[in-house]
Amino acid sequence: MVDGVPGTLRAWDAPAPVWVEPVAAWVDLHGDWSGRAVVTTERRTADGVARALLDLPDDAPVGDDDLRDAFGEVANVVGGNVKSLLPTTGSMGLPQVGATEPAPAGSVVVAHVLLDWGGRALELTVRAAS
């Protein structure tokens, strides 16, 4: 989805990263099952994702608006995939982007995976509302 290059996204096989300059994007799901899909990474990686999605050169600066649009779209796609797995219909909120995802009180992590995108970590988390 991001860069169109097969094999650039695979399982992360190193210790879990400690985010230094994190960026998180999330989208809430509403319906019979409510929850949230979250994508977290470093700002440098989020900038790379934005460049790939916007077809910008590798050294192009990424403004905050472009980062929010592109990285929010990644969360939107992840959330849409989660929604498609649910047995009932529901709706999705608009993607949000921030330095950290404010986990809803009482939510429970139901899925978590670390991925490697070209040597950079992406963390996907799905939370169920309580």
Automatic annotation (TrEMBL):
Keyword terms of this UniProt record: Chemotaxis
A Pfam family of this chain: CheX
Coiled-coil residues: none
Residues of the Chemotaxis phosphatase CheX-like domain: 23-98
InterPro entries hit by this protein: CheC-like_sf (IPR028976), CheX-like_dom (IPR028051)
Organism: Cellulomonas wangleii
Record protein name field: Chemotaxis protein CheX
Residue intervals passing through the bilayer: none
UniProt key word Membrane: no
